Amino acid sequence: MEELPQDLLTTLEITPSVTLTDLVFALLTSAVLNFALAWIYIRTHGGYSYSKSYVQSIVLVGLIVSLIMIVIGSEIARAFALVGAMSIVRFRTPVKDSRDLIFIFAAIAIGMAAGTGFHLYAAIFTLFLGALMLAFHAFKFGDLDHRSYVLKLRIDPLEKDAVAALCREYCRHYAVVSISRVSDDAGMEEVVYEVELKPRVEYGDFIERLREKVNPQAINLLVGEGSVNV
Q1: CA-CA distance, 57 to 150, in Å (whole number)?
Q2: 100 with 42: CB under 8 angstroms?
Q3: What is the rounded CA–CA span in Å between residue 110 and residue 90?
């Protein structure tokens, strides 16, 4: 029984030797696969929240994780030391899109696989994930067909019936959200509508008809939350 703890410690202290060739090959594999992952992110990104630094972070995270996995090897003491060191680092950068978080996790997974010698698994995972992401992008998986907008008009109260007639003509559905008096002009109102255009109606044509028939002092058209990624 006294020899058991010593044997256990001896087993835990065994660290597999990693040659310089293994290190270079692991880093190259991680870099190439994470470059492919970053390219897929660029090709499939939508909206206005694109960040060059985030794209570069995808590649760098994979490289860092690869080196961490090589350094740790199978030694538990180093793993606990890494956990203690990383616990003092706080990341406060907000992630606007949950899809961005998926790419970071994918880069970590590729880095772990490359760092532990599972190069083929990392390549297969990258190809499979890339094909899936490109398929989502090509077939617009998850996109909504609704064409909802928020329309804000500054009009004369007598023109509200004309606006309602145009909404019935061009919209599948519409509703008045709010009405407020303009402080600097007692004869004008700001009316906010929620509208859903008919399938073959373009929002430019709808706005043009409003200008022709109603001629509001101000007109704003905001895209609905389900129609844009920010």
Answers
A1: 36
A2: no
A3: 23
C-alpha span between 229 and 216 (Å, rounded)? 29
pLDDT in tens, 131-158: 999 998 888 777 666 667 888 888 888 8
**Beta carbons within 10 angstroms of residue 188's beta carbon:** 19
**Domains of the chain, start order:** 10-138 (no CATH), 148-227 (3.30.70.260)
> What are the structure tokens assigned to 69, written together?
């996995």
* Strand ranges, E, within the chain: 148-155, 171-182, 185-197, 218-223
In three-state secondary structure terms, 144 is: coil
Asked whether the predicted pLDDT for residue 13 surpasses 50, the reply is no
pLDDT score at 125: 94
pTM of the predicted protein model? 0.63
How far is the CA of 221 from the CAs of 104, 107, 119, 176, 204, in angstroms? Answer: 35, 39, 51, 14, 10
Sheet holding 218-223, edge to edge: 171-182, 185-197, 148-155, 218-223
Do the Cβ atoms of 55 and 38 come closer than 8 Å?
Answer: yes
Contact residues for 53 (Cβ-Cβ < 8 A; gap 6+): none
Strand, coil or helix: what is 135? helix
